Amino acid sequence: MVAPDALRALQAVSVPLQAPPAPPFSKPDSALKANEVVMRILIVEDDREAAAYLAKGLSEAGHAVSVAHDGDSGLDYALGDDFDVFIVDRMLPRRDGLSLIGEARDAGIETPVLILSALGDVDDRVEGLRAGGDDYLPKPYAFSELLARIEVLARRQRPSEGETAYRVGDLELNRLARTVTRAGQPVMLQPREFKLLECLMKHAGQVVTRTMLLETVWGYHFDPGTNVIDVHMSRLRSKIDKGHDKALIQTVRGAGYAIRDDA
């Protein structure tokens, strides 16, 4: 007979080790094909095992992944960084998935969202799409299908050729890389600030009215009667023009704003 202590030791040795979740923004796999685009993907999933499996698969496909396990943390990630796709479980602790998506949309975040849910009836799918989701995948799902769906979502969002970058003076904005530099130095912007600057640079040298900004950046088709534009424009100016001899962002009194290099 095997002694109890020896039996327990054998059982401990036979337990397989579980791989830890993929780290946020892990480096792309070297096997990524040259014509594929690395995506920054946010996974919001409270099932840690399922989240780790999904993160591992996406990382192996060459994408940069970040994981949150509750709705509040997921919303913090969504508002605080730029992603190409959100993958959001519908039933989450602290804040449900549809509430997270709604808050992100209200904040002007237009990142495509794939909703994962065990609720797969037609009414559930319709509710998810109307809440701001772009696609809906019932559980259980095949990873290959999920990967194909997020690739489609990212392609829809990707800027068309010839519109991927803007330059005004020494200020450069890259829409694909989601980067901004001034005089070669990186400028860190929040998602709303990036969109505001993108709108100005797209119409460089022209007056961009407050109505245009409300519709393009905030999705408002009415004047909310607040100073929301002025507040965000002030923050944007402090990041773009502060410390430089020449101010690029200009106020056109009674009309709106413009960005131009008058050199």
Structure characterization notes:
Helix 4 (97-106) links the parallel strand 3 (85-89) and strand 4. The strands form three sheets. The chain has a five-stranded parallel β-sheet, sandwiched between helices. Strands 6-7-8-9 form a four-stranded antiparallel β-sheet, with helices on one face. The protein starts with a helix and ends with a strand. The protein folds into two domains: 18-157, Response regulator (Rossmann fold, 3-Layer(aba) Sandwich); 165-259, Winged helix-like DNA-binding domain superfamily/Winged helix DNA-binding domain (Arc Repressor Mutant, subunit A, Orthogonal Bundle). 29% of the residues are buried. It is elongated and about 55 Å long. Helix content is 39%, strand content 18%. Helix 3 (71-80) runs parallel beside helix 4, helix 7 crosses helix 8 (210-218) and helix 7 crosses helix 9. The protein has 263 residues and is α/β, with parallel strands linked by helices. It contains nine helices and twelve strands.
